[in-house]
């Protein structure tokens, strides 16, 4: 098909961090900027998934607005992309139920292990998604989704749901600042483990200075034995103006001190995130406008979902 539907989602569980930015959100913006007329982009703030760890309602409401303001600050443009809250499309749960009925038992047991994936498949299939940009850590979600679509199509003998393709984004997993064996995550209780996309230059400098390093006096790119240095080098590569690879930069930094590496990484991150906090403040200061944007996105998403569900219901007889 000449057309493309690109779908991706993010949980409204806090302000995005450096990992979300280089592993996903910055890529969303690039996809948007490169999209031709036959491409539709949908970016879903998955508030229903966030319910898997219950929190006070006010916190989720706040988290959704914070995520929306973050996406806008990064440059996701509601005129070019559909940005919406998952909960504005009730068909997510309907399709999820229907998919669970045609899932194989092996699939079902894996689904209970990872309950979130099960929702993820319906999210993606609901929009006839052809491409899913995902980071390294979420590759298997797309595999599950393909399996869901194939099982359903097989059960009803019709190519109704489209098995989506993984769109490989540059796989850069950024690790926690305090424990380089754990991935940097929004849901980590301590903010010291991550650099937020709206941290000030001072905060960024302090956090990088405090990064836990390895027990070696000098740098070598060795992810297994020196994960602290490897993480800093990955961050450096993510923001390298010359676009050099992790291996090239690792070689270049070999033999240098950790403090020298940090001195190189710090301004790259500050420059890389420049302007984001100002734009974020601009958007978050107008919650009514944010809600309008989300509502408008919801209307578009619902129309696309209805089209898919019309075919699905026809096929299953509901
Ligand atoms: P988090 O784990 O921080 O709560 P999400 O699960 O909402 O983030 O994932 C949002 C997107 O960010 C996904 O595409 C995921 O691949 C990407 N992502 C999350 N953490 C990292 C990380 N530490 N490094 C690179 N990409 C990441
Ligand atoms: Na997560």
From TrEMBL:
Q: Which domain of life is it from?
A: Eukaryota
Q: Which residues of the full protein are shown?
A: 473 to 790 of 793
Tell me its family.
Belongs to the class-I aminoacyl-tRNA synthetase family.
Instruction: Report the protein name in the record.
Output: Small ribosomal subunit protein uS10m
């Amino acid at each position: 098909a000449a057309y493309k539907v690109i779908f991706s989602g993010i949980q409204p569980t806090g302000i995005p961090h450096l990992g979300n930015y280089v592993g996903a959100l910055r890529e969303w913006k690039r996809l948007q900027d490169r999209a031709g007329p036959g491409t539709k982009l949908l970016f879903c703030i998955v508030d229903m998934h966030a319910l898997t760890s219950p929190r006070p309602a006010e916190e989720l409401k706040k988290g959704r607005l914070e995520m929306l303001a973050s996406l806008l600050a990064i440059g996701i443009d509601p005129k070019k992309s559909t940005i919406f809250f998952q909960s504005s499309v009730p068909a997510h749960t309907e399709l999820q139920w229907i998919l669970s009925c045609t899932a194989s038992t092996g699939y079902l047991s894996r689904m209970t292990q990872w309950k979130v994936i099960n929702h993820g498949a319906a999210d993606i299939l609901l929009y006839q998604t052809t491409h899913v940009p995902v980071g390294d850590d979420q590759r298997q979600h797309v595999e599950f989704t393909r399996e869901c679509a194939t099982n359903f199509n097989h059960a009803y003998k019709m190519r109704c749901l489209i098995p989506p393709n993984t769109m490989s984004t540059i796989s850069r997993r950024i690790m926690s600042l305090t424990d380089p064996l754990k991935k940097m995550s929004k849901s980590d209780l301590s903010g010291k483990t991550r650099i937020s996309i709206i941290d000030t230059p001072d905060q960024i400098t302090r956090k990088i200075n405090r990064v836990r390093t390895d027990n070696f006096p000098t740098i070598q790119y060795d992810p297994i034995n020196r994960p602290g240095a490897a993480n800093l080098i990955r961050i450096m590569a993510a923001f390298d103006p010359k676009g050099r690879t992790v291996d090239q930069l690792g070689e270049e930094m070999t033999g240098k001190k950790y403090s020298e590496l940090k001195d190189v990484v710090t301004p790259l991150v500050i420059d890389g995130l420049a302007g984001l906090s100002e734009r974020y403040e601009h958007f978050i200061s107008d919650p009514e406008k944010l809600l309008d944007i989300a509502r408008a996105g919801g209307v578009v998403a619902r129309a696309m979902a209805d089209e898919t569900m019309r075919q699905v219901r026809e096929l299953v007889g509901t």
